[in-house]
Amino acid sequence: MNIQAYIESGIIETYVLGLASPSESAEFEQLCAQYPELVAARRRFEEGLEKHASTHAVQPPVGVKVKILEAIALNPPKIVTMQNENKKGSSGFTSLLAAACVLLVVGLVWMVYQSRETKAQNAELQRTNVALNERLNSTDSVLKQIIAETSVVKDPNNIVVNMVGTKAAPQSSANVYWDSTSTNVYLVVKNMPVLPNDQQYQLWALIDGKPKDLGVFDATKNKMILKMKNTQKAQAFAITIEKQGGSPSPTLQKMQSMGKTLQTQ
Amino acid sequence: MLALKQRNDQAFSTLYDNYSGALYSIIKQIITDNAELASDVLQEVFINIYRKIDTYDQTKGRLFTWMLNIARNASIDMLRSKSYQNSQKNQELPDNVYKGTANQSTQLNVDNIGLKKVLEKLKPEHRVLVELAYFKGFTHEEIAEMMSIPLGTVKTRIRNALLQLREYLQ
């Protein structure tokens, strides 16, 4: 590192005037720790700047100082320092009185300070509480979802129908869990493209060659389990893309995926 | 310094007496046309100095440098704030009415104080860049875009300008 060239590069002025980027500043501070001559050059510029600023000072309006001191007095800092000054010449009684006053004031300040602290802590705790509750709720709903899913998947009565993509949508896949005794139908979306807002997927059961509407769904959440309409019979399930809210009969050229059950006619 | 960090009011009062003029000067060089807002900023700056004195790190520079940067940042924040923009709108009318003389005299005042006076000695293409970066608070990237010159050129020109500035300050 050619420190002299670095010093002459203008980086000192850039840094001191607050125009350096964070990475330039970090580098500069690191080099300052290594090169005393860099620190000395920085100091020279800082001194020149300070001197120049002092000679060109502009007297601020008179009231400003008072306002600042008032603002500070109203908002005391966290450190309470006690000056231990014993003034000679005061009588025993006055000093006792003064001591009592000081104690009173210190006590009051302490109480105000404590109550502020407590308030701040209280607010902080409340915030944490709300945040934790929110997390609990969301975790709860995810857990419920998982439990529901597991119970469907593990139910021995359920027939799993693997729906595979058609030529129109080779990627699309979903599983239908169908309980032919309770007639419940569940759908698990594995991979279905997200549709525009005015369209929805619709699930159909094919019974004796005729489609039966089993309800519409969005594919916004993958791997979520959806409860569809019940059906007692089905030789196959199919998914089509329909307008928002579904259609009375399927648009077959928009069939996305299909899967056959083992049930025969 | 220790007295300041312990928030000794007397030390703080002395600090104000010694530096308020220099800091007010820099604030007025940034907020050029509204003395009331400039003194509001000065007030805010000293309250911030009082509150943040614990974060001042002596190894990174002189106390004045630290305070100067607080003053500059606060002024630029004010320049970009809603209340400042509004005050500008309100002033538009009188400005138009007294077009000419009034404007010229304030312009003259501003250019004659502090660092801006030193800037006058720089080449115009350098001066503009320092003006935008230091007194208006634009980043180097913003300036490069604004003036359609490469970022590298902005950086070198500003650095060269500041180097010259150093010579004038010494």
Q: How would you sum up this structure in a few lines?
A:
With 265 residues, chain A is an alpha+beta fold. Chain A contains 6 helices and 8 strands. Chain A has an 8-stranded antiparallel beta sheet with strand order 5-4-7-8-1-2-3-6, covered by helices on one side.
Protein described:
- The complex is a heterodimer of chains A (265) and B (170).
- Chain A has three domains: 3-55, no CATH class; 97-154; 158-260, Immunoglobulin-like (Sandwich), CATH 2.60.40.
- Chain A has 265 residues and is an alpha+beta fold.
- Chain A has helices spanning 3-7, 11-16, 22-34, 36-55, 63-74, 92-154; strands spanning 158-165, 173-179, 185-191, 199-207, 210-217, 225-228, 236-243, 255-260.
- In chain A, strands 5-4-7-8-1-2-3-6 form an eight-stranded antiparallel beta sheet, covered by helices on one side.
- In chain A, a hairpin with a 7-residue loop joins β1 (158-165) and β2.
- Chain B has 170 residues and is an all-alpha fold.
- Helices cover 79% and strands 0% of the residues of chain B.
- Chain B contains ten helices and no strands.
- The interface between A and B is large, with 44 and 51 residues.
Distance between the termini of chain B: 26 Å
Query: What's the level 1 CATH class of the largest domain in chain A?
Result: Mainly Beta
CATH topology of the largest domain in chain A: Immunoglobulin-like
CATH superfamily of the largest domain in chain B: RNA polymerase sigma factor, region 2, helix turn helix motif
